[in-house]
Amino acid sequence: MTVTVRFAPSPTGHIHIGNSRPALYNWLFAKKMGGTFILRFDDTDTVRSKQEYAVSIEKDLRWLGIDPDRIERQSDRLASYDVAAQKLKDAGLLYPCYETPEELERRRSRQRALGRPPVYDRAGLKQTDEERAAFEAEGRKPHWRFLLPNHDGDPFATKRTDVAWTDLCRGDQAVDLASMSDPVLIRADGSYLYTFTSIVDDIEMGISHIIRGEDHISNTGVQIAIFQAMDANPPVFGHHNLLTTRDGEGLSKRKGALSIGSLREAGLEPMAVASLAVLTGTSQAVEPLASMAALVEKFDLTSVSRSAAKFDPDELKTLNARLVHEMPFEAVADRLAGIGIQPSEAFWETVRGNCETVADARDYWQVVTGPVDGRINDEDREFVSIARNFLPEGEITEDSWGAWTSALKAETGRKGRGLFMPLRRVLTGMDHGPDMKALLPLIGRQNILDRLP
User: Fold this and answer.
1) pLDDT of the residue at 311
2) Beta bridge partners of 145
3) Which residues, 6+ apart, have CB-to-CB distance to 15 below 8 Å?
4) What are the structural domain ranges in the chain?
């Protein structure tokens, strides 16, 4: 089987780390199987869809390392939806309904009050041509529902009809179509719902696998029925758990929670974000992988848990720091230059272990080049003054720190924190940071002398 998958976001907002999970799962699956990944914009909602969001989504995906093999837009495919809808109408599988939203809600409320499930009663099927003409005369326009195959010929005598599939993430699954309302595929304003357009697209684009969040499980039985009604074999489905916050709160574009753009602007590495989005909520250890190739190798849908994928946003910082600590100079040289640092391998090797992000190196570049707001406690002032006289002569090397502190220890009797900390504070303005042995040569003799009283 030729593997073709898709990620189909609505360009109605910026994507967040939760959205990135299905995007990454589909892309990784395609790469692992030697297949094709399609980015398909669900942009038929002309009121809410905006080109700026589509541009943002594509930019965010590429930053994560997802390069689409094809980009499609549903707004370019309206003629295909018209043809498919007419085919279902001609087969008697798409029927008009004239109830208003208020009428439908009142009917559902009555059903709930009687202890019955609020399933649509197919009243639209009973309407005569005369009744429909009367509704049209009132100015009503119909919405169109798909007739589910949950009966033996009499649509008003439904029976249990299980639609089963083997899920890539969850194993054997089944949905009873008799427990569901006939889905609306066309709104009263004539616009198509995503349920319908996505199926038409999936058929025409040869989508072989649909990998998405578990919130779509209940829709799958309906969609399989529509695939079959359109004489198409359904794709293979996989439903992964959803990312939530530590408190179990879902993520949404509306709230802007952990948007990919904001994570990028915060200086996080794309592989830290991708590693967390993919591995959280699986049986595999959540660790930062250095490349998408490594993530492809580790990716395994069968490892996805059925329980919620709760993650701690602070974990992103930890994963990011682990990646930064291992980055070779060649990988960051241009980025360091871009933030005003004259990069050298010695500088990066010295400071990277203290950086959560690459941009944190700016703080240590300031320490190296100055000026520095050195701090001296009153009880250390005399000690720091003496220190100036014991700074080793000649070039400052990695041996200089040890020689300097040894001489001061012999002279003053100080040791441990009382020996090292006053020097660190006056030279760097910090209580912590890179090893002074390696940092001292970068600061240089003149800066050292300028910072000592």
Assistant:
1) 82
2) 95, 184
3) 9, 23, 56, 57, 60, 61, 253, 259, 260
4) 4-72+193-243, 260-325, 327-369, 378-451
pLDDT tens digits for range 363-410? 999 999 999 999 899 999 999 999 999 999 999 999 999 999 999 999
Neighbour count for residue 334 (Cβ, 10 Å):
9
The CATH number of domain 4-72+193-243, selected from 3.40.50.620, 3.40.50.300, 3.30.465.10, 3.40.980.10: 3.40.50.620
DSSP summary character for residue 377: -
Annotated binding-site ranges for ATP = 253
Let me know if 257 is exposed, middle or buried by CB neighbors in 10 A (0-12, 13-18, 19+). middle
Provide the CB-side half-sphere exposure for 270 (13 A, CA): 14
CA distance 435 to 400: 13
Looking at residue 327, the DSSP 8-state letter turns out to be -
Q: Can you say which residues are annotated as belonging to the binding site?
A: 253
The answer to whether 22 and 210 are in contact (CB under 8 A) is: no
Mean pLDDT, rounded, for 166-195 = 96
Residues with Cβ within 8 Å of 332's Cβ and at least 6 positions away in sequence, in order, are: 343, 348, 352, 358, 361
| Class of 260-325 in CATH | mainly alpha
- C-alpha to C-alpha distance for 441 and 371, rounded to whole angstroms: 16
Is 349 within 8 Å of 343 (Cβ atoms)?
no
CA distance 150 to 229: 13
Q: Could you give the CA distance from residue 89 to residue 60 in angstroms, rounded to a whole number?
A: 40
Structural tokens at position 370: 């100055």
- The angle that helices 436-443 and 400-412 make with each other, rounded to 10 degrees, is 110
